[in-house]
Amino acid sequence: xxxxxxxxxxxxxxxxxxxxxxxxxxxxxxxxxxxxxxxxxxxxxxxxxxxxxxxxxxxxxxxxxxxxxxxxxxxxxxxxxxxxxxxxxxxxxxxxxxxxxxxxxxxxxxxxxxxxxxxxxxxxxxxxxxxxxxxxxxxxxxxxxxxxxxxxxxxxxx
Length: 158
Prior knowledge:
Radius of gyration: 20 Å
Structural class: alpha/beta
Mean pLDDT: 79
CATH topology: Rossmann fold
Helix content: 40-55%
CATH architecture: 3-Layer(aba) Sandwich
Largest sheet: 4 strands, parallel
Number of strands: 4
Shape: globular
């Protein structure tokens, strides 16, 4: 079983849901989508937690709190972060994930519905990379070079 965290922005329609009925419907629809995505992960034998962030400047607090509660194989980041007006927010989230979950793979999704495919894509790449860098390969005599060997003239390209 793999464990995933999907970090996304609360849509403005969802954030303003107290203001009108159509926003309430949008919030309900978004919640249904997230519930369906969690069910898809569960059906695959995996677990998906959600961390929905509001645009209120406290981004690192919920991310850090969620990462303290569990260890994740993969962190999936929603598409709203990559909008030009949210670049600083995206950087804060990436840095929080890097600090608090350094061993987790990171995937990017455009919509919550993309999360299952992104999880498969990212973990398959991560597992391929791990196979290439297995401990036995890293400890083979040909892979071990001392710092002095790296600096020797014979180690320089000709």
